Amino acid sequence: MVRLVMTDSRFSLAGLDPNEDTVTGTGYQSSSGMLRQDVPHIRRIRHGIISLFSEQSIAPWREEVEEVADDLISKLPDGHQPPDLNKQYFEPLVVRAVALSAGITKEESDKLYDFSNKVLVRVETAEDRARICGAWRELYDYGSNLINRKLSDPDDRLLSKIFVQLKNTHLNDDQIVAASGTILAGFYTPFGILSVSAVELFRHPDVVEACQKESTLWERTIEELMRYKAHFNFFLPRVATEDVTLGDVKIHAGQVVLPSLHAAVNDPESFTYPNVFTTHRKQARCNIVFGAGPHFCPGAALSRQWLQVGLERLFTTLPGLRLTKQYSDLKWQPGSISMPKEVLVTWDKEHI
């Protein structure tokens, strides 16, 4: 049902009224943004850039991401003890991974990360509207300058290629800025997923041990982690453009529908024993966590690469890695993905 709503042309994002969106900030961005476009306009934007995010295209950057991960891990013993993986590993890993793949400085990546935290948020009160709209406008201004610089002095990294493709699609300047803003903000979403995934692995040492013995198991493990726990609570709200009946539910034209990813990944018709964490599922991948149809996340392969590198390097480098407190004692913070406020760890330092 969730996949159907995401792919059915009778459900629109373009018609979303921000005042009706009480969960996400989707409606607060430009109507030309990628999240607000419907078919065929969204396909026009995606057509030129989708190949840039393919597994083959991003594969050459894996070694560089591994070097970033190894560098951050090597500094954990020298930093604040016990180290908080959120602040000392997961967050800087994503920020630096974005910088190297996008072809920007760490300072620029830090700035974009700050924008991402301001625009991709849950909407808690009516007063949030002005703040979120203002944050999107600031991101567009910053992105406009970045686009102009990359177009005038291109390199072989992701952003230059994306901006050139969007320019070749004959979008006007405002449309390019709006579409790019969606991409720039979305780069940093793997941070929370990394944090949640690591904490879940601490609860399954047998899975970690199996992956350490057979590295090919990491890919399957990452997929199950995203399905089981490390995914966004909600995806994109949609508005019914006409009366639609889904199963035995009648949805009237103009009503807002909010597909729940959490419901989709726990559907017993799609996943046997969905409440059980297991790396032995028949499904090779759980693509629904990245959306579906014309709004399937173009950065899915990039996210998978960072998640696999980040977790594999961490759990294969530090022997006996473990939390300093019980899982039940962790404090969680709300958001589009609920994640622990801190992940304090220790390990068998005498064996390094």
Q: Could you name the key traits of this structure?
A:
352 residues, two-stranded antiparallel ribbon, Cytochrome p450, 9 strands, 14 helices, mainly alpha
Describe this structure in words.
This protein is mainly α. The chain contains 14 helices and nine strands. Strands 1-2-5 form a three-stranded antiparallel sheet. Strands 3-4 form a two-stranded antiparallel sheet. A hairpin with a 5-residue loop joins strand 7 and strand 8.
Q: How much helix is in the residues?
A: 40-55%
Query: Can you summarize the main beta sheet?
Result: 3 strands, antiparallel
Enumerate the spans where pLDDT stays under 50 for 5 or more consecutive residues: none
H and E string: HEHHHHHHHHHHHEEEEHHEEEE
Q: How far is the first residue's CA from the last residue's CA?
A: 49 Å
CATH homologous superfamily label: Cytochrome P450
What is the C-level CATH assignment? Mainly Alpha
Please tally the β strands and state the result.
9
Q: In terms of structural class, how would the helical and strand content be classed?
A: mainly alpha
> Which whole number gives the mean pLDDT?
92
What's the shape?
globular
The DSSP helix count reads 14
Strand arrangement in the largest pleated sheet: 1-2-5
